[in-house]
Amino acid sequence: MMKTTRSNEANTTDWHESAFDIIRGLSAYTGSSLIEGLAKVIAKYPDADLGTAFNHKQVGSKIWAREKLFESLGGKFKHIVLLGGWYGVLPAMCFDDSRFDIDLFESIDIDPAVAEIAETLNAKVGERFRTTTHDMYTVDYSTRGADLVINTSCEHIADLPAWLALLPRGTKVLLQSNDYFSEPTHINCVPSLEAFKEQTSLSHLAFAGSLKMKKYTRFMVIGTV
User: CATH number of the domain that 114 lies in?
Assistant: First the structure.
């Protein structure tokens, strides 16, 4: 019994090193820039909340966004702006996909602590990825020249129409929200896709759809403000 207990303690202590070795091996096997970046993040930032950032729900919703974006608007972009970019997982997934040709993917987040992690995850692409620390309400979108603005956390925006009004008319957007009303930080959920379409009031709608998750449904629209 004592040996088993000590073995379990050792396994718990060594999990971080084992995870790093596993991810590094997967990077060598797949040649994936995302997995290579993830190995570097694990090595440099052991306290990063990667379990949340890369859980199946987060990854699934981003795969959905990536697929529908390519189907709706293609894969060539000069400048994508991502609001609430956190660890930069969506940019890493797009850079890891050979269908996409992106000159610059800019990840904006209000939390300065996430910038280095996002930059490490996307280090392979160099100057094609950058982070900036801003409140999304204070960004001057007219000077950025973005040909696509992404916000996958619209449930966190108290007045979504007011934020959308800050974008230059004609800007293409990808927006996501959900009906997860029981989550305290979700201050502006919507009950249905139709409600989300009405809330965003896009001048042109290229895509609108729903993705059923275990506890909630995620809604997405792609189009032009």
Answer: 3.40.50.150
Work out the pLDDT band at 29, boundaries 50, 70, 90: confident
What is the domain range of residue 100?
A: 54-224
Which of these, 88, 89, 83, 223, lies nearest to 163 by C-alpha position? 83
Parallel, antiparallel or unpaired: strands 204-212 and 129-133: unpaired
Its pTM stands at: 0.90
Question: Does residue 58 share a domain with residue 19?
Answer: no
- Please name every residue paired with 173 in a beta bridge, in sequence order, or none if there are none: 149, 223
Specify the pLDDT at position 6.
46
Q: What is the pLDDT of residues 89-115, one digit of tens each?
A: 999 999 999 999 999 999 999 999 999
| Whether residues 118 and 22 fall in one domain | no
**Residues 189 and 86 occupy one common structural domain:** yes
Q: Are residues 47 and 59 in the same domain?
A: no
Residue 43, phi then psi, degrees to nearest 5: -70, -40
Question: Is 195 in contact with 215 (CB distance < 8 Å)?
Answer: no
Name residue 77's beta-bridge partners. 102
Q: Cβ distance 89 to 60 under 8 Å?
A: no
Tokens of 7: 């073995």
- In whole angstroms, give the CA distance from residue 211 to residue 92: 21
What sign has the CA pseudo-torsion 167, 159, 186, 182?
A: negative
Q: Can you tell me the distance from the alpha carbon of 25 to that of 114, in angstroms, rounded to the nearest whole number?
A: 25
Mean pLDDT of the chain: 92
